[in-house]
Amino acid sequence: MKGIQDYYHDHFAQCYGCGRLNEHGHHLKTYWDGEHTITKFIPKEYHTAIPGFVYGGMLASVIDCHGTGSAALAFAKQQNIELCEHNAPRCVTASLQVKYLKPTPIDGEIEIKGTIAKINERKATIVAELYAGGNLCVTGEIVAVLVPDNFGE
Ligand SMILES: CCCCCCCC/C=C\CCCCCCCC(=O)SCCNC(=O)CCNC(=O)[C@H](O)C(C)(C)COP(=O)(O)OP(=O)(O)OC[C@H]1O[C@@H](n2cnc3c(N)ncnc32)[C@H](O)[C@@H]1OP(=O)(O)O
Questions:
Q1: ipTM
Q2: Hey, what domains does the chain have and what are their CATH numbers?
Q3: Does the CB atom of residue 65 touch ligand 1 within 6 A?
């Protein structure tokens, strides 16, 4: 299964959270599931907060890049971009809010579901729900801003 991150330009694919070219990173893949976006992640033992549970900063990191990936998917849809090669829109985080509802067990896959709450021509707000073992453990809200094509030129 390809994620939006497979379509980022090489220059924008170095991010620790979601860059496919960062050998130390999470290598997240975010894709559509109907009207929602999905990212899955399997925590490692060294992501521990207290034994058995995932470190909250790690969960925030995953929610962050799920948000920028979801925003990129939403902008691609808005702009009728057919994803191929490395033509995906790219977003940075303007704001990240996280609420920890329950401790997140470390032994198993985590699924993050995204909803595009708002979008205009440059900014998207994504609401995220993070589930472990089917239980909602963390929620998040990300404001992501589109990086212009000529950024840094
Ligand atoms: C890493 C550095 C990134 C910087 C540059 C991009 C380089 C591209 C390269 C590679 C891309 C891949 C990177 C990986 C991404 C993964 C996730 C991260 O870790 S990102 C790192 C953490 N985030 C930052 O360091 C952003 C620092 N902040 C900024 O650069 C600016 O403040 C920015 C771009 C977010 C907005 O600045 P404006 O001057 O371009 O635009 P204005 O007009 O201020 O905002 C645009 C819209 O966003 C809203 N906005 C801005 N800040 C907001 C905030 N904190 N909360 C809510 N809304 C906000 C504004 O109200 C405005 O909304 P309305 O279009 O008018 O509706």
A1: 0.89
A2: 4-146 (3.10.129.10)
A3: yes
